[in-house]
Amino acid sequence: MKPxxxxxxxxxxxxxxxxxxxxxxFKDCIYPFxxxxxxxxxxxxxxxxDNEKSNYDLVTEYEEEEEEEEESISVITYCPHYELMLExxxxxxxxxTPWLSWEHKGCYENTWGTLSQHPNWQKDVSYRRKVKxxxxxxxxxxxxxxxxxxxxxxxYFVDILQDELFDSFTYGIMKGGDDLIKLGLSHLAKDAxxxxxQALLSLTKEVK
Length: 208
Description:
The protein has helices at 53-56, 82-94, 177-182, 190-204; strands spanning 12-15, 20-25, 33-35, 40-41, 58-61, 102-106, 113-114, 125-129, 133-136, 139-142, 154-158, 166-170, 186-187. The protein is α+β, with helices and mostly antiparallel strands and 208 residues long. It has three domains: 12-72, no CATH class; 82-129, no CATH class; 133-204, no CATH class. The strands form four sheets. The chain has a five-stranded antiparallel β-sheet with strand order 4-3-2-1-5. A three-stranded antiparallel β-sheet has the order 7-6-8, with no helix packed on it. Strand 3 (33-35) and strand 4 (40-41) form a beta hairpin.
């Protein structure tokens, strides 16, 4: 009988289909690993899906000395959401329900929805961490910048005297940028600045 593999976070393994996958530690009692290919793995190297399960199961450990010929060298398989996966792993270490802080949107959908479980990291689905918000007169608006962005970043700030309700500046070039950030009126997105301005106007704007 072939001995079972000792799966360890940080090590690289081959799937049955020949893909090379590196495991990261994942805080889940059933699936303690998350592979670079976007699949959750059990302690025995099985994937969390039933369909085509045998293709994605981990079968052998990758060892560099085994790959002598250049033609046989394979690259690690990365999910297109890999960078987000790393962020999600950090959230899992801090929360029992990390998915509640994340949203997903299908390629044919216009709105984001809160996740109800661990994301499946599907290629045709977009994922993001929820934008932090504040309440102004009952309106939920994106939280303004609290720290200075990188030099050269375009910053949008609330300006109720403008028809568009916002103006912008390039951080590090315009004087007074730090003051606007300290006032809590600046955002990295144009839409966020507009929503912020609309919420402020709701406090004083005459209702007809």
